[in-house]
Amino acid sequence: MNKILLVIQREYATRVKKPSFWILTLVVPILLAIIYAIPIMLANKPLEHANVLVVDESGLFQGQFHSGRDITYYDAGSLDYAERQLATYDTLHAIVYIPAREASIPQDAFLYYRSDAPSITVQADVNNQLQEILRNAILLDVHGITPDDYALLTSTHVRLRTQDIETGRDGFLQIKMVVGALLALLVFMGVFMFGSQVMRGVMEEKTSRVVEVIVCSVKPFQLMMGKVVGIGLVGLTQFALWVLLSGVAVTGVRIANADIFEQAASRHSVTEIATKGTDATRQYEAARYQQAQYEAGEGIDHDLQELIEGLSSINFGLLIILFLFYFVFGYLLYASLFAAAGSLVDNETDSQQFTLPMTVPLLLTILLTPAILNEPSGSLSTWLSLIPFTSPIAMLFRIPFGVPVWQIVLSTILLLATFPLCIWVAAKIYRNAILRYGQKATWRDLFRFVKTKN
Amino acid sequence: MLTIKNITKTFGNYRALDNVSLHIRRGSLFGLLGPNGAGKTTLIRIINQIIRPDSGTILFDGRPMTETDSAHIGYLPEERGLYKKMSVGAQTIYLARLKGLDKATAEQRLHQWFDRLEIASWWNRPVEELSKGMQQKVQFVVTVLHNPQLLIFDEPFSGFDPVNADILKREILRLKEQGATIIFSTHNMPSAEALCDHIALIDHAQVVLSGPLDDIKAAHPGKDLDRIFIDTVTHKT
Question: How far apart are CA B88 and CA B121, in angstroms?
Answer without folding.
Answer: 10
